[in-house]
């Protein structure tokens, strides 16, 4: 009998390979507190399964993933699968009060989604409060079985997760800032795979070690899971060949330094082609505005096999903190692979031409003593987003009135010298609202994100949920709608889910609204999200069930 069953399975595998190639992958995420020591100081942190960083979630293209998240801590929790398209499955996207009510203490929710047409490195992280400081991990999507990478197969693959560490409780850090009206304290260290590396006044602090064999090539899956800081990453004496960003293949190029913003991922090949020894790995901040950052460099070690532990480490100097040109060189080198198998399908006909200003403002706050009766806020097109108490997607699907409006402005309400300093037309004050911008299914969008210098120009890594987009252009100063589009790259622009809006400049993206639901757009610097630099697109259903959002799962949390 068993032989007949085996024969039938093999026969079906040959006859219908598509049916048996994809599989269902089950994961259990328990949200628990864990006492953790860094910088010679111990504190309880919120983790998944007691691990920091959290466990890696592996899947293949077209697999279905079911993650049962059970909340054992005092905070409400939700998890976002950053960069996963979530086609028709907005209920599994994760941002609290946008696509779901959060998971209350003591309860569970199963995130159920299929990874359609995606492969590469993404990340998962908490999407409520500041919990993603420690609740994050890698999401590795392998190509379909038997499908090779479009670059030489590496000897080994290694996840490299960059993050920040506070000695204080991060929830206390942001709560104190919100009550005072001023910026929160910066982190005390950066980390590489959970470790800051060598730190002054803390000799017991170890670092991550990356073991390599001479002549072998390794694929580094680099993830920036930091809350608030863009980072440079480099390895002493070695070149990195960039082959992918945000789970999309790029034309390979060599560099010694990458720049990576929170929410972004970069896959890089490194060949162990130097003299045997130990080489410094460095992650340091990039900030080209007069804004306070954690200036500590996180370190790790690239360790050739056979090298004695006592061997001195070959060092490298990280770029200066304000090395704009180093960052620009990297960003401008990114081009879509645009091959026959992986074409760049850039929308050429545009239905919605949008201009969104992104920046900071100041609103009255009588109780904010540290802010002298004012508080720092952030906005998109001068609207500081007010988080609802009912999830927007539920309000949309079930026609619950009074939760949001669909009058988000497609252009700034006031025109002024956006990238300049304060001016007569540039009001420091913002308006408050829970406003969405409505899109018809399959409509095409060009969105120009313009930084403002009303308080201070700053680089904003802006993340769009539910879509990939093409970064067709960027520049410094104010976007010129007559001149700048002539310089757009509409042939092989890089495809991403998180784009860096340059300090005092602009970035233009294009996407097709082929995913019904409510999709969050926000700055991935958590402090700016907290302050209100966020909005959402409402994409209507198309025709029939294949172009409509699926019904909500029965265990969807309630507000």
What overall geometry do the principal axes of the alpha carbons give? globular
What is the typical, i.e. mean, pLDDT? Answer: 94
The radius of gyration over CA amounts to 23 Å
Based on secondary structure, the structural category is mainly beta
- Number of helices, counting only DSSP H or I runs of 4 residues or more: 6
Estimate the strand proportion.
35-45%
Cα separation of the termini = 52 Å
Number of E-state strands:
33
Main sheet overview: 6 strands, mixed
EC number: 1.10.3.2
InterPro entries: Cu-oxidase-like_N, Cu-oxidase_2nd, Cu-oxidase_C, Cu-oxidase_fam, Cu_oxidase_CS, Cu_oxidase_Cu_BS, Cupredoxin, CuRO_1_LCC
Catalytic activity: 4 hydroquinone + O2 = 4 benzosemiquinone + 2 H2O
Protein name: Laccase
Write the layout of secondary structure elements.
Blueprint: H1 2-15, H2 17-21, E1 24-38, E2 41-48, E3 57-60, E4 64-71, E5 79-82, E6 108-114, E7 120-126, E8 136-142, E9 156-165, H3 170-180, E10 189-192, E11 209-212, E12 217-224, E13 230-235, E14 240-245, E15 248-255, E16 258-260, E17 265-271, E18 278-286, E19 298-304, E20 313-314, H4 324-332, E21 352-364, E22 374-380, E23 383-385, H5 392-397, E24 431-433, E25 436-439, E26 444-451, E27 460-464, E28 469-476, E29 494-496, E30 498-501, E31 505-512, E32 517-523, H6 526-531, E33 534-539
Description:
This protein has 559 residues and is mainly beta. It is built from six helices and 33 strands. The chain has helices at 2-15, 17-21, 170-180, 324-332, 392-397, 526-531; strands spanning 24-38, 41-48, 57-60, 64-71, 79-82, 108-114, 120-126, 136-142, 156-165, 189-192, 209-212, 217-224, 230-235, 240-245, 248-255, 258-260, 265-271, 278-286, 298-304, 313-314, 352-364, 374-380, 383-385, 431-433, 436-439, 444-451, 460-464, 469-476, 494-496, 498-501, 505-512, 517-523, 534-539. It has a six-stranded mixed sheet with strand order 10-9-12-17-14-15, with no helix packed on it. It is globular. The protein starts with a helix and ends in a 20-residue tail after the last strand.
